[in-house]
Design brief:
Layout: H1 2-28, E1 41-45, E2 50-59, E3 62-67, E4 71-76, E5 80-84, E6 89-93, E7 98-106, E8 109-114, E9 117-122, E10 126-131, E11 140-151, E12 156-169, E13 173-188, E14 191-208, E15 213-225, E16 230-246, E17 250-265, E18 274-288, E19 293-303, E20 311-322, E21 327-338, E22 353-364
Antiparallel strand pairs: 1-2, 1-5, 2-3, 2-10, 3-4, 5-7, 6-7, 6-10, 7-8, 8-9, 11-12, 11-22, 12-13, 13-14, 14-15, 15-16, 16-17, 17-18, 18-19, 19-20, 20-21, 21-22
């Protein structure tokens, strides 16, 4: 009996010693920091996780970071524990000052390394981050879409849509250009008829005055439409914009301002070519329903002289479905409207509305 008690006592002592050693080892163990390869930017979350990849930008307390493994991810700035850049970054501070250098963010402190010297700032003064290197692809976003529909039988018909757009952002500016072309023709008994032949090029440059207000210092549109008898309609102007909502999931902007428009018609009309002053209004809503589904609503309205159509409007709305890192499927509704189309003598008046529902495959770069 005494031997059994002694064995139990020894077992208890050994178990306690092992437990104390495990606890001590657990308290001393610290996750290792990665070896900071200069091929990547590095991001550490407050959870202790590290990511390597590319810093794209930081606006409105949201960091956009691209990783080869997880594609592009948007993090709340408050979730970022540490950030290290491999290239120069442009840093905009709350007082409007912009500086450039290698960036280290750690322990609510910002270090900017430039010309071999370090500058230290409280993290609370940081407003935005963008790359300062013009040849870095992260300054630019691009996308191309293509959709096609071929019907054969009693009626042979071809419909296709092509879209290309690019965007570039800096701490103070945003440039965007987009070209959309739609074409449709049918062949019946050997006779071809063009149903749709429309092209639109839009381009603008925004300058951010504050977190809510921006100025569209350049706004240009070129539009052509066979069915509306428009050979070329060029509009150039400027406007002021306002961010109604801007957060991680929703961006909703409105713009309004004056423009000048000149229209050249394909066939001669009683009014001939037209020139008109314009009051332009626009609204753009971009809503991220989930990590893979986005909804877009883009509406532009131009008030022009009666001989130029009175009111010209363009609507693009639909959904974007991410398929993988680079490809997505878009379902879009397009509507172009001229309130009072100009009719060439001896021809049937064109209809006010041109619209189409298109499914297309997109590639982002």
């Amino acid at each position: 009996m005494i031997k059994i008690l002694l064995l139990l006592a020894l077992s208890l002592v050994n178990f306690t010693a092992v437990g104390e050693q495990v606890t001590a080892d657990s308290e001393m163990w610290v996750p290792p920091s990665p070896i900071f390869s200069q091929k990547f930017d590095w991001l550490k979350l407050r959870s202790g996780e590290w990511l390597k990849g590319d810093i794209i930008s930081m606006y409105d307390d949201e960091l956009e970071f691209e990783s080869d493994e997880f594609d592009t991810i948007i993090f709340d700035w408050q979730d970022v524990s540490e950030l290290r850049s491999r290239f120069d970054q442009q840093i905009r501070f709350a007082n409007g000052e912009v500086k450039q250098g290698f960036l280290i963010v750690k322990e609510d402190h910002l270090v900017l390394i430039s010309g071999g010297t370090e500058q230290h700032y409280p993290l609370s003064e940081l407003l935005s981050i963008t790359s300062s290197s013009d040849d870095r692809k992260q300054l630019w976003d691009g996308k191309v879409n293509f959709g096609i529909d071929v019907n054969s039988g009693n009626v042979n018909q071809l419909d296709y849509l092509a879209v290309a757009k690019v965007e570039r952002r800096t701490p103070f500016t945003r440039f965007r250009a987009e070209f959309t072309y739609t074409y449709s023709k049918s062949t019946v008994s050997g006779a071809e008829k063009v149903i749709t032949d429309t092209g639109r090029l839009t381009s603008y440059l925004d300058w951010f005055y504050s977190s809510k207000i921006f100025f569209r210092v350049f706004d240009y549109e070129h539009f052509t439409d066979l069915q509306q008898n428009i050979d070329a309609r060029d509009t150039i102007g400027l406007s002021v914009g306002y961010h109604l909502v801007k957060n991680k999931r929703i961006q909703w902007d409105i713009t309004i301002g004056p423009s000048y428009q000149q229209t050249v018609y394909r066939k001669s009309t009683e009014q001939n070519d037209q020139k008109s002053g314009v009051v332009a209004f626009g609204t753009l809503l971009d809503y991220s329903i989930s990590s893979r589904i986005d909804y877009l609503f883009d509406y532009q309205l131009q008030f022009v002289e009666e001989n130029s159509g009175k009111r010209n409007s363009h609507l693009k709305t639909g959904f974007e479905f991410d398929l993988n890192n680079d490809f997505e499927l878009d379902l879009s509704l397009y509507l172009d409207r001229v309130a009072e189309p100009v009719t060439p003598p001896g021809t049937t008046p064109p209809k006010s509305n041109d619209y189409g529902l298109v499914l297309s495959l997109g590639y982002s770069f």
